[in-house]
């Protein structure tokens, strides 16, 4: 894979990832951009022992532009964008409106564009393109993990306006958190108190019971968890314990891509529409509890039926006590049949 590092007009880093060694990425960003956004501020909540980022500059970020004004499409004559090249395969750049960044809050936020084609979705990418995305995820995880102050690297994709997406171009994000987020802390605290190997036991139980398994191959299993919180929620585990994406070998990366494309296609066929979803990689923290963690992906949708969304009610939003409208066994069956 060819990796080309360059800079945007305001100094933000941009990295092209290409399968072709002859890819020309020499185009420069000539936009008259203002200075970089002010850093966000981290504030501590002593009641919950959690950190909250205050990022007021994000109020001015781009919101649902037309396809003609998409900032993630390649640049063309008279229409410069965030990507100077007239075409690209996969590209990653520092977010212009970061939730976390240099200064008081530390950390780093990046945008990853999965393809230059505005109208495509991840499910429509060819397998070789998916492999480039996986290589880019692994590259960024390794590099951000080496940044001073980054405690966990989070690769994720939000898809669909119902989820809150503000740009329709197929893309994801990568957060280098300056702390270990609450969900990871709780998950690893539980694993540390468990007398056995918690993640291994969960995976083995789901594979043995099989009723909630959606798809599997020799190296990965995708299943609806027994206590799923969302109407359609699927967890994807490698069969081998690894802490993070860089630790996956070539066979595991290739096997994941095939399974993931199948899973995303099932989601879209479920209701005959592009399903809104969040797809989130859970990786080990950089410095703590790496021996307890088990890399896995969690994917969920707020769509509970055609024309019906799952909104968080008072009990869920205020107290974190979830009520699922769809039984996990029924969700898995529907996805298998999709």
TrEMBL record:
PROSITE patterns: GAL_P_UDP_TRANSF_I. Pathway: Carbohydrate metabolism; galactose metabolism. Its EC number is 2.7.7.12. SUPFAM superfamilies: HIT-like. Residues 107-181 form the Galactose-1-phosphate uridyl transferase N-terminal domain. Keywords: Carbohydrate metabolism, Galactose metabolism, Metal-binding, Nucleotidyltransferase, Transferase, Zinc. InterPro entries: GalP_UDPtransf1 (IPR001937), GalP_UDPtransf1_His-AS (IPR019779), GalP_Utransf_C (IPR005850), GalP_Utransf_N (IPR005849), HIT-like_sf (IPR036265). PANTHER family: GALACTOSE-1-PHOSPHATE URIDYLYLTRANSFERASE. NCBIfam families: galT_1. This is Galactose-1-phosphate uridylyltransferase. It comes from Actinomadura fulvescens. The lineage of its organism: Bacteria, Bacillati, Actinomycetota, Actinomycetes, Streptosporangiales.
């Amino acid at each position: 894979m060819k990796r080309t590092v360059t800079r945007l007009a305001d100094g933000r880093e941009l990295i092209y990832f290409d399968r072709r060694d002859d890819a020309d990425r020499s185009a420069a960003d000539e936009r008259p951009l203002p200075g970089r956004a002010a850093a966000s501020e981290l504030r501590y909540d002593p009641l919950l022992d959690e950190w909250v980022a205050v990022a007021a500059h994000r109020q001015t970020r781009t919101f649902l532009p037309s396809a003609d004004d998409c900032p993630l499409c390649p640049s063309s004559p008279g229409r410069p964008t965030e990507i100077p090249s007239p075409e690209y395969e996969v590209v990653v750049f520092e977010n212009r409106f970061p939730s976390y960044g240099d200064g008081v809050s530390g950390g780093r936020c990046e945008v990853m564009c999965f393809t230059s084609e505005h109208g495509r979705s991840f499910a429509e990418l060819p397998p070789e393109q998916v492999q480039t995305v996986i290589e880019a995820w692994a590259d960024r995880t390794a590099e951000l993990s080496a940044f001073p102050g980054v405690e966990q690297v989070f690769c994720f994709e939000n898809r669909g306006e119902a989820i809150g997406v503000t740009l329709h171009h197929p893309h994801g994000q990568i957060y280098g958190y300056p702390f270990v987020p609450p969900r990871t802390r709780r998950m690893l605290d539980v694993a540390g108190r468990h007398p056995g190997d918690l993640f291994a036991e969960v995976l083995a139980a789901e594979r043995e019971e099989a009723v909630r398994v959606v798809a599997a191959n020799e190296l990965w299993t995708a299943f609806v968890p027994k206590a799923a919180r969302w109407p359609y929620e699927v967890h994807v585990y490698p069969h081998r314990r690894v802490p993070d994406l860089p630790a996956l070998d070539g066979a595991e990366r290739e096997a994941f891509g095939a399974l993931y494309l199948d899973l995303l296609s099932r989601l879209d066929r479920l209701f005959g529409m592009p399903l809104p979803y969040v797809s989130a990689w859970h990786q080990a923290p950089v410095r703590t509890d790496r021996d307890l963690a088990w890399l896995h992906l969690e994917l969920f949708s707020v769509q509970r039926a055609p024309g019906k969304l799952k909104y968080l009610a008072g009990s869920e939003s205020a107290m974190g006590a979830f009520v699922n409208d769809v039984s996990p066994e029924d969700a898995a069956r529907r996805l298998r049949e999709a």
